[in-house]
Amino acid sequence: KVLKILDAISEQGMTLSLFLDALSWGDESCHSNDRIRFARTGLMLSEELPGILERWYHPLRNQHKGQHSVKQRITTENLQKFAVKCMADLLEYEIEHIAPHFTSPPDELSQAHLT
User: Fold this and answer.
1) 47: alpha, beta or left, given left = phi > 0 and alpha = psi -120 to 50?
2) Is the dihedral of CA 79, 82, 88, 94 positive or negative?
3) 76-89, pLDDT tens digit by residue?
4) Can you give the pTM of this predicted structure?
5) Helical ranges in the chain per DSSP H
6) What is the distance between the alpha carbons of residues 74 and 7, in angstroms, rounded to a whole number?
7) Could you give the count of Cα atoms lying within 13 Å of 64 in the half-sphere of its Cβ?
8) Closest CA to 74 of 59, 88, 84
């Protein structure tokens, strides 16, 4: 089944990465198409997605270990960079929303009030 899907993608002049990019809001025609939106939402909400991402982060080891170790290292680095960006975005959001709780009114910052 997977090979037939890859063949269909190739027949459309695409690669798997181009297909995933288009499916993932990378192609204007995919933004509003109901069938594509339904498929994308199904993927994003699927129980399988965390496992897919985990396997992309820690791919199964290949018998030709030396040949693939560079590719696996690059894959891991790309996913780590993405994870760091996600965490930085989340941290920034949390700091912006918690900061008002730690801000003192100007009258409480006077020298008389602080001493």
Assistant:
1) alpha
2) negative
3) 899 999 999 999 99
4) 0.69
5) 2-11, 16-21, 28-31, 34-44, 48-57, 65-98, 111-114
6) 26
7) 4
8) 59
Cβ atoms of residues 75 and 59 within 8 Å: yes
Nearest to 36 by CA among 23, 49, 55: 23
Half-sphere exposure (Cβ direction) of 22: Cα atoms closer than 13 Å: 13
Six-digit token string for 69: 């170790």
Structure tokens at 113: 């009030």
- How distant, in Å, are the alpha carbons of 6, 25, 49, 78, 92 from that of 88? 35, 22, 22, 15, 6
Average pLDDT, the chain: 88
The confidence score (pLDDT) of residue 41 equals 95
- Report residue 21 as tokens: 């990019």
